[in-house]
Design a protein that fits this description.
Blueprint (H helix, E strand, L loop, with lengths): L2 E9 L2 E9 L6 E7 L7 H12 L3 E4 L15 H15 L2 H16 L4 E11 L1 H11 L6 E5 L16 E7 L7 H13 L5 E6 L23 H19 L1
Parallel strand pairs: 3-4, 3-5, 5-6, 6-7, 7-8
Antiparallel strand pairs: 1-2, 2-4
Helix pairs in contact: 3-4
Amino acid sequence: MINTAETSQTYDGTELLHLVMDDGSGQARPGVVILPSFANRAAVEEDYAGRLVDLGYSVLVADIFGKDMIGLDVGKDEDKQKAFDTMNAKMEDRGAYVKQQQAILDFAKAQDSIDGTKVAVMGFCFGGLCTLDLARSGADFQVAGSFHGLLKIPDFGTRKIKPKVAVFHGWDDPMAPPADVVALGQELTEQGACDWQIHAYGGVGHAFTNPNASKLGIDGVAHNANAASRSWDSFCDLLAETMR
C-alpha cells in the first residue's frame, strides 16, 4: 500500500505544495527527495516515487516553483513558455535558488516517514541541475542522482561535495554537450567528492526517462527506454549500497 499526502511549505513568500509518499506504516524509512523537471511536479516524478516506495523508501516529490505552477501541460505552447521563463529566471541566480533546495531538503528530513540521517536527492533535467547545485553547496545528504540534468558549473562557489554523486547523461544531449561532462568530472574531483560516477549513453538525447518527452517538439529531446531502464537500475543499486 502507498500512502500519499500533499504537504505545504512556505519559502520566501511562495507556497510550495510537495507530495509525500510512503508505505503508511508510520515508520521512518530512508528517504528520497525528487526535484522535478522544468515542468515542475508532475506524473512522471510521481511514477518514480511510487517505484521507490515499493523498494522500501519514503519519498518527497518537491514543488520547486510554487503551487500555482503544478499541473502544467508543457505540450501546450503557453504552458511550455511559462515553464521555460520560470526556469530561466531561477537560473539567473543559482546561489540564491539553491537555498530553496536546502530548505526543501530540511523539510523532507523532518517528515515523520523519513529517516533524516539517510536521505538521497534525485532530479530530472532542471531538477538534475538543482540536485547537483545542492551537492555543490555543501549540503549534507547521502546520494545525489542527476538524470539528464543540466551540467553547467555555477558561479556561487562549490564547497566540498558530501554525497555520493551519480550522473546519468545522454551523450547527444543538446543542452549538456560533451565539454560540460568533462568539466563536471574535473569539478567533482577537484572538490573532493567522496564517490562519483558519470554514465553516458551513446545515441541518447535529453529527457530520456520521460515517455512524453517528444511532445515538447524540441530536437534532441526524446524518450529512450534502454537508457531509462539502465540509469534507473544503476541508481537503485547505489541507493541500496548506501542507505539500506
